[in-house]
Amino acid sequence: MKKSSILVTLILASTLTLSACDMMGKKKPATEQLVNAIVSTMSADGQKVTDEQRKNIEDALAIQSAVAEAARKDKLDQDVNVKALISLQEDQVLMQEYMRKKMEAFKPTDTDLKAVYDKQVGQLSEYHFRHILVKTEDEAKAIIEKLRTGGNFAELAKQSIDPSGAKGGDLGWAPLSRWVPEFSAAGSALKPKEFTQTPVKSQFGYHVIELVEAARTPTDVPSFEAVKTQLVQMAKQDYAKKLEDGFKPKTETKAEAKTDDKAAEKK
Q1: Closest Cα partner for 34 from 47, 48, 21, 52?
Q2: Cβ-contact 30, 103 below 8 angstroms
Q3: pTM for the full predicted model
Q4: Domain 126-216 belongs to what architecture?
Q5: Which tens digits make up the pLDDT trace of 107-132?
Q6: Cα angle at 97 between 95 and 100, to 5 degrees?
Q7: Fewer CB in a 10 Å sphere around the end CB: N or C, the chain?
């Protein structure tokens, strides 16, 4: 994001929050306070604010303050939609400040970082699969039954509607991210030479999957120490997401809804 855009965004947020405070009968902060608040926020983001930038902030605030005052004279601050937008902006600024404070206090330990590292390395691990893809569940079940009784996977793979069928269903080595989630989840749960005991449904049809060889980690994966700085950032991102997820409204499951309906019927 360009610095000018950041300035505008920060100034806008501060100005709208100021308006919200004004509407609630609070004392309007002095321009100097607003400038210091914006500069402080920018500094916290690692930006060095020059004297010229500070002057630009002051000028922008002066213009917005004058326009806002004109809007008040026209009683725009009494408009229902404007009040709602001001309230929304105030909540957004408060949320950002809350998150900033929490993130400042969060200090990931080496144990936290190792967990992030292992997760990332796990995503890089490569698996060697072969599979047979068919259109119907019954076809997949029939193939699984033949494999249980000693059927040859490569021969049965000739029935596959996937191009890999011509190679005995062999998909070669690749990370789990290469395949759809259903395939990856079922395949990674297998031991070498094992095949799925039930058909695996995906958007493409029904799979019968075999893990040919155990997962391997690429040899060029950097060491834990080499990427420790990046891991800190990843740990912070994970922490921020957990914080936000903790405030998400809990959705009622279908089972809970049915239970509530039955309870209501008994009353």
Answers
A1: 21
A2: no
A3: 0.52
A4: Roll (3.10)
A5: 999 999 999 998 888 888 899 999 99
A6: 110
A7: C
